[in-house]
Amino acid sequence: MKIRQLEYFMHVVNTLNITHAAERANVSQPALSRQVQLLEEELGTRLVDRRPRGVALTPAGQRLADHVRALMQNVELIKEDIIAAETMPAGSLRISSAYSLRGLLIADVVAEFHRLYPQVNLEIHEGVSINVREELVTRHVDLAIYSDHGASRGLNRQALCSEGLVLLASPAAGLRMDAPVPSTSLVGLDLVLTPSPNGLRRVVEDLLPPSATLRNPPVIVETNSIIVDLVSRGGLHSILPYSACHQAYTRGEISIAPVAGVTWPWVIATSRDRPRTAAMRVFTDLLLGHARRLAADGVWITAELPPED
Fold it and tell me: Fewer CB within 10 Å, N or C, the chain?
């Protein structure tokens, strides 16, 4: 089985037409048909069904197509890594990040990366940490930034920072960053919480005393922006990483206070079985550098950075 044969086969997959596939491959139709036939003979099964108007993939052909797509993607990554290791980032970069980091960190880093390397095709995803990690595991993205509260088999992780969780309330509540609140004070509050399963939801539930019962059922909201909007109107409280509410706090839309004794770890992760491209390396360096500047300038006021190498 040769890569060129697989490339010919993928032209067939993408066109479902032998003639069109041969044109794309820049070979004669008999030559392309012969290579597909050799593949079928080697694998001992039919890959395509010939029809009056084109072809259709057999179940075996569809399985092979799925494998070849992953193989070709790795081939391109290997090429890009070798060519770009000591040069400017090139190719594409797919990133997924937790919602909480958008306003304080991710948007600025993405904008800076694009300004420096506009030739790189950027694709940005967002989600809760459990979904961000899953996108990396399933190869939908190349690099992920999320809160590390789960298994990490098959992943390379690098600490970005840890930060404090804060209690959110309306400005009238008068919460202050120099006055931490104990977790026991959460019991008497009406809370807005993220849905389960969710790492933040699990941490908040662990903060409550074992026998505690909330005064009222929590309001369940998926996105941080809606949580902040609800809290700012008064009567409701929530718990988020400081990064998730930094902008609303600096605009005076909410008041916040640290929740005593709890931190929230952020990591940058890549897959162990994929080459680390120049674009991934440079984006990671920009993330770490920007986080250090935010902490040094007193902007990310709850951030605790890992030791520098």
Answer: C
> For residues 7 and 23, what is the distance between their CA atoms, to the nearest angstrom?
13
Residue ranges of domains in the chain: 3-83, 92-161+265-296, 163-264
Question: Which amino acid type is present at position 87?
Answer: T
Distance in Å from the first CA to the final CA of the chain: 45
CA-CA-CA-CA torsion sign (140, 144, 146, 150): positive
For the stretch 38-49, pLDDT in tens is: 999 999 999 999
Q: Residues 48, 58: contact at Cβ < 8 Å?
A: yes
Residue 185 has pLDDT above 90, yes or no: no
Class of domain 92-161+265-296: alpha beta
The partner residues of 191 in beta bridges, in order of sequence, read 237
CB 104 within 8 A of CB 240: no
**In terms of C-beta density within 10 A (0-12 exposed, 13-18 middle, 19 or more buried), how is residue 1 classed?**
exposed
